[in-house]
Amino acid sequence: MPTNLLQRRQSAFVLWRVSNTSPPPALVLQRVQAGAPLTVTDVREITMKPVAGFTDLWEVPAQECGLVDGQIYHYWFEVTVPSPPGGPVRRVRIADPAATMVDWRVVAPRASSAGFDAYPAAVVRAQAGSLVPSDAGDAIASFDGEPAPETLPTNSQLVLYELPAAWTRQADAGGRDTGVGSFRDVIALLDAGVAGDPFTDSEVTRAGRAYLKELGVNGLELLPPADSFYNRQWGYGTTNFLAPDFELKAPTGETVRLIDLRGQAVLVNLWATWCPPCRAEMTSIEKMYQEYKDRKFVVLAVNMTYQDDSLAILPFVNEQKLTFPILLDETGEMANAYQLRSLPSSYFIRPDGIINEVVIGGPMSEALLRTRIEDILK
Questions:
Q1: What pLDDT score was predicted for residue 69?
Q2: Fewer beta carbons within 10 Å, N or C terminal of the chain?
Q3: Is residue 334 domain-shared with residue 294, that is, in the same domain?
Q4: Do residues 366 and 271 share a domain?
């Protein structure tokens, strides 16, 4: 296969899809207008066609999409996923695997996820008939001065190993065990004189072996456990995305928009009155709020009202003497935008609106809160 995929992506939406291509993949294209909630316009679904000479490469030329020059577009690829014999065809919208930017504020509808986690939309800019890498805020990446890939010398010597900083294995009693790898485990994969963490008890991290050297690996890239929406799953961390904007009401009727707090460090805490760890960490959050509020630090405690007893919220707030804003997610829209998996969930957002870190579960200690708050105040 010619190494021209990057060149093709400059003028077409391209998907490499080996199997499950009947019905063929489709491009789902839309524009998103700012606001709370975001407004979706100009939604189109275009069937992709195989690239001549290939059985596994699909594309839609940009010139056939009717794109408006200078506009930002959000898109997914809709693909077929395996179904039980005789079952209906299942289609799922996935993010472009080769996308340079995705927008977690815009996720695939539940009806287009077929039981899978909702994927974020990829983002691209239409410019002079080409597709240009861009983020949702219209910031364009520039590679001026960089040599073209086809001009670089062939590199057949580097073997790069992407090592998840988490592990999984078959459990003795069935199922599987999972855990988080340590730096000691990593060193043990490289140095035969070092044993991995005893808790890991993995054959490849035992003393006397240098497993990665046995594989001929001479480059190592560590992939952290995803630390936000898919907590402790293998893969790239999903922080460092723009926090989805929301507009929610307080019990007093006052409305708060996250975007209006730009320039301040924000802790968004998702909670419910029936959740014991949620209740347990509120005292620590209140203490940290009092300690840091004069340094442009804000707490937004968003109650999952759509799954909580609305009559229990204010009595709990008054009992705990909480002074930071309490907001109500009455429809679950905000929880869906933040891909809520369990309560409590806490999102530490930098003054520029970027999610710095996500803590799933609790209760959070004062020490943990102080460290995370200091990080977003830097």
A1: 92
A2: C
A3: yes
A4: yes
Place of tokens 């093709």: 8
* pLDDT computed for residue 77 by the predictor: 94
Residue 81 falls inside a structural domain: yes
Give me the pLDDT at residue 241, please.
Answer: 63
Can you tell me the distance from the alpha carbon of 17 to that of 9, in angstroms, rounded to the nearest whole number? 15
3-state helix, strand, coil in the chain (%, to 5): 20, 30, 45
369, two tokens? 């809160």
Q: What is the CATH number of the domain that holds 270?
A: 3.40.30.10
Query: 79 exposed, middle or buried (CB, 10 Å; 0-12, 13-18, 19+)?
Result: buried
pLDDT the model gives residue 2: 47
**What was the pLDDT predicted at 285?**
96
In order, the DSSP letters of 305-329 are: GGGS-GGGHHHHHHHHT--S-EEE-
Assess whether 137 and 9 both reside in one domain. Answer: yes
Is the CB of residue 32 less than 8 Å from the CB of residue 38?
yes
Domain that holds residue 330: 247-377
Question: Phi and psi of 173, rounded to 5°?
Answer: -100, 20
Residue 178 located in a structural domain: yes
Give buried/exposed letters for 313-344 (b at 16+ CB in 10 A, else e).
beebbeeeebebbbbbbeeebbbebbbbeebb
Number of domains in the chain: 3
CATH code, domain with 89: 2.60.40
320 shares a domain with 209: no
Amino acid at the residue 104:
W
pTM: 0.47
Residue 204's pLDDT is what? 81
Q: Which two tokens stand for residue 302?
A: 């968003």
Both 204 and 111 in a single domain?
A: no
**pLDDT at residue 4, rounded to an integer:** 74
What is the DSSP track for 47-63?
E-EEPTT-SSEEEEEGG
What number of CA atoms fall less than 13 Å from residue 91's CA on the CB side?
18
Classify residue 140 as left (phi > 0), alpha (psi -120 to 50) or beta. Answer: beta
Q: 275 and 166 in one domain?
A: no
Domain end position, chosen among 144, 170, 186:
144
Low pLDDT (below 50) residues in the chain:
1-2, 224-239
Residue 237 lies in a domain: no
